Structure prediction request, 104 residues.
Amino acid sequence: MRDISELQLELDQLAQLIGHTHERLNGNHLVDVSGLAERTEALCNRIAALPKEDCITLEPGMRAIVDELDNLAEHISDQQKSLVEVLAELEQDQPEDTLGNPES
Prediction:
């Protein structure tokens, strides 16, 4: 049961990290998500190695993580689209003779 408790704690901590990351994005702060995929994968692999009945116990926490990651991915994608739009507008506002010319 100790393994289950430890894994549940790790799931909770990961959910908090993802939530904090999402909050920072909502506040228009830059975030570093490096390592998040590896950490999530390692935790999932540890859970997958458990007996089925133990996995069932952790399923709600895992579903919450998946939902949070989906929301975070959607938010990041929306921000990327917004940035592309802003860059396109900036490029349109530039006179053609200065595009790609850092000296102008």
